[in-house]
Specification:
Length: 364
């Protein structure tokens, strides 16, 4: 059975990812490696404006310092454009203290909310990620490198990629049928040069596949000069499919960025990925989906589900519960999440990257 599957990624300069990175940076500051601190930071970005909202519990809350953090994030991404410049931003900080009603449930490390989280892994790629999202991320990481190294001087921060894989059976990728890539660029470069250069970069980056029959759609609408938050509003948590598995696996619906790790939206999704990856890496299955669910304020998960190689695996679900503490506190402790630099997770997916504690293969 042959079929196609498509996933997309966005760069760190995409408006939604600008918002995500600001949220994770401010959350890092508020949490301050303190397991008793809490953060739920939402960010909106638009033309020369950043608005912060949400809640926190911390002994660190300096509005002037947070203002400096926000500007530093925008500067480091590379925004010095007329419509979005780190030095010209109006910053509205509307963060407020955590509700005592929520604190009742989370101070004892019960789940910060009800919800269901999924983790996935497969043996398609070396990072145990589905191919379409794997290559979508790679394209944009390469463009980021070309921009920050000034190898391609006309590249600007906002870009997107999309890869369509052709499969011959589940988890058996055959070829890359289509690659879509759009990037913001300086006004001085022609669209023809943009298209030629980007196709050359992509061909050089993806050498595992023969791309001679691949359709390239580079900046298909034409010129892309006005971009970033000046071209489109950005919001925290609006790229959850980019953050996970590119739509190739189920998603519980909760966003990650801006949240401390008592929020199981984040921590339990990391645990579910760890479990799924270790199942596949150990050879117990070629692909695995793990679902965890929780109730607000309750310590133990309300369910554990494993689906591997086309079968529901209650034996694996039981085994995982024997091997791993799946309480929010157990997850936090296993991965030392209150000492995790949240900004290391923000861009190019939360999964499939080296150096993150939940990506380790050490369970079986």
């Amino acid at each position: 059975m042959s079929y196609q599957f498509t996933s997309e990624s966005v760069s760190k300069g995409h408006p939604d990812k600008v918002a995500d990175l600001i949220s994770d940076t401010v959350a890092n500051y508020i949490i301050n490696n303190n397991i008793n601190h809490r953060a739920a930071v939402e960010t909106l970005v638009t033309t020369n404006m950043v608005t912060l909202a949400g809640e926190y519990k911390s002994d660190k809350f300096d509005k002037v310092y947070i203002d400096k953090l926000v500007r530093a994030v925008v500067r480091d991404i590379g925004y010095e454009q007329e419509g979005f410049h780190w030095g010209n931003l109006k910053i509205y900080n509307e963060l407020h203290g955590q509700s005592p009603d929520i604190a009742l449930g989370t101070d004892n490390f019960g789940a910060g909310d009800q919800g269901l989280m999924f983790g996935y892994a497969c043996d398609e790629t070396e990072d145990y990620m589905p191919s379409a999202i794997h290559y979508s991320h790679r394209i944009l990481r390469r463009l980021q490198s070309e921009r920050t190294n000034n190898t391609v001087h006309w590249l600007e921060p906002d870009s997107k990629s999309q890869v369509t894989m052709s499969y011959d059976g589940f988890n058996s990728p055959l070829s890359i049928d289509k690659i879509v890539c759009s990037t913001q660029h300086k006004d001085s470069v022609s669209i023809e040069q943009v298209r030629i250069t980007l196709e050359e970069i992509i061909r050089d980056e993806i050498s595992e596949y023969d791309l001679d029959k691949t359709d390239f759609l580079i900046n298909p609408t034409g010129r892309f000069v006005i971009g970033g938050p000046d071209g489109d509003t950005g919001l925290t948590g609006r790229k959850i499919i980019v953050d996970t598995y590119g739509g190739y696996a189920p998603h519980g619906g909760g966003a990650f960025s801006g949240k401390d790790c008592t929020k199981v939206d984040r921590s339990a999704a990391y645990m579910a990925r760890y479990l799924a990856k270790n199942i596949v890496a150990s050879g117990k299955a070629k692909n695995a989906t793990v679902q965890l669910s929780y109730a607000i304020g309750v310590v133990e998960p309300t369910s554990v589900y494993v689906y591997a190689d086309g079968e529901v695996r209650t034996d694996l679900a039981d085994k995982l519960q024997e091997l791993v503490d799946l309480t929010p506190k157990g997850i936090i402790d296993k991965f030392n999440l209150f000492n995790l630099d949240l900004t290391k997770t923000t861009n190019y997916g939360h999964f499939g990257k080296s150096g993150l504690p939940y990506e380790k293969i050490d369970l079986f």
